[in-house]
Every structure is written in structure tokens, then in C-alpha cells.
């Protein structure tokens, strides 16, 4: 009975996503299909890739940390991305190739964030004893604050016109996604998901907690380390592709918990991905047709997600 109910919910969510995508592709097209469809199709592909990365990585991250109000952003990857963008404009100017060339900017951003993730991961887990995931989160939070402070310091020193150009990197946007980046991102994401398959089957057991997982025969440290790397690389790719979206993962994964009422991660992850697509396509429609591009989808998502985050905090505080 429960399986049938969740199947129905999946059907409704998929139908909602397809309807929104259909409306997004054809609304106010004026019959110029050859011009409009390829461009809007690229946006849809960017939305699906970004939504899948953020929802997938956040669902895994919350299971590993056993905390439903955390997102991978706490490890400072978003702040490192903005530090690189600000540093490039501060030192070389907004007309330098490292900032203007999207392919180069994407490659350097992903490389920097992946290296940072690997170094943080290697440093924190080089010895099994005395270091745990909560210390990793604390170090990531401190480094993220440091990166953010350095970015703010450089932002107040650069030319106001340069800052206006830099501001475009502070918020996620699907308006000028490079097709080459989509292909590279899609290939990278598929490879990472294939690698993660042999570890994600343990998520239901990991959700029981470290002690229970170890008692059930799971190699806890080995699996958690590799899942954390998968999370970090996926977040790096999605951030470098469209920019930081702070609260999207928190919003969609918790909504998936509310909608499906299950602890099976196969259901939760796929549900989170579909909800993320619905949220991003709906948000982009509002940005383009209601606000006429005067804001970005990340502003809307962060506003809704921020309100939901406060609701979760108040809800948890009542249970203490």
C-alpha cells in the first residue's frame, strides 16, 4: 500500500516537472522554434544537472552527518568559489581571460574546489582515530568563513564597475550557460554517479548511525570517506556551472522526507532530484515571466529555503 502511495507521488511530481518544462519551452515563443528551443533546452539541461547534483549530494551528506539541517555548503566550497572569482577580478581585472573565458574559469574553479576537498579530506582522515566527520565540518566552516572574509575585503577595494560585473558570479544563473560546459559537466557527473553506486547501497544502514552500521558489518570509515569525496566533487561541479545556491539542497531533501515519509534512500534521492527540478524550473519561470529578469532564481530559492530553514530550527527546538 505504501509502495503504491509513493509511486503515485512520484507520478504526480514527474507530471508536474514535465508540465513546467513544457510550459518553459513553449511560452511566448512566437513560433521561432529554431531559435528558441535550443536555447531554452540548454537551460533545462543545466537545471536538471544542477538540481540532480545538489539534491543527490545533500541527501548523502545529511545521511552521513545524521543531520537534516546541514548542507554540503557548510564545508566552505561556495566561499572558495567566490574567493577565486573575487581574486581574479581584484588581481587581473574583469577583462582577464581567467574571468571572461567560461571554459577556463569553469576548469580552474572545479580544480580548485576539488583540490581543496581532497586536501581537507586527506588531512582530516589520514588517521582513523581522533578525527571524525564533525571535526571535518568544523574545520570546513572555519575555512569557509575565512574565504568569505577575504572575498569581502577584496570586494570593498575593487572598482565599483568591476564589482558590478563580479556580482553576476555571486548568484546562480541559468541565462548564459555554455554548451561546452554542459557536455563536460554531464560526462563528469555520470562518471561520479557510476563510481558512487557501489557505496550508496549502504546509505539505509548508515542512516542508523555509526555504531549500528559497524555492528551490522559495514566498513563505516571506508564508505563514508568515499561518499564525502563524491559529495564534494558534485558540489564543486554544480557551483562552477551556475554559481552557489545555498538553500536548495536543504529545501528539496526535507520536502522529499515530508512527501514520501520513508527512510529508503532510493526513494528519497530520486524524490529530491525531481523536487529540485520542479523548484528550479518553476523558479526560473517566475524570474523570466513575472520579474522579467530583474532577479535570479537563486534569490527566490534562498528566500523560500531560508524561511523553511527557520521553520525547521523552530520545529527542532520544540522537540528538545
Can you describe this structure?
The chain is 78% helix and 0% strand. The protein has helices spanning 2-26, 33-65, 77-92, 97-100, 102-125, 133-155, 160-167, 179-200, 203-206, 210-215, 220-242, 248-260, 265-290, 297-318. The chain is globular and about 55 Å long. It starts with a helix and ends with a helix.
Spell out the blueprint of helices and strands.
Elements: H1 2-26, H2 33-65, H3 77-92, H4 97-100, H5 102-125, H6 133-155, H7 160-167, H8 179-200, H9 203-206, H10 210-215, H11 220-242, H12 248-260, H13 265-290, H14 297-318
Which class of secondary structure composition applies to the elements?
mainly alpha
The main pleated sheet reads as: none
Number of helices: 14
The number of strands is 0
- Mass-distribution shape: globular
Distance between the termini: 33 Å
Unreliable spans: none
β-strand amount: under 5%
Mean pLDDT: 84
SSE topology string: HHHHHHHHHHHHHH
Helix amount, in percent?
over 70%
Q: Give the radius of gyration.
A: 20 Å
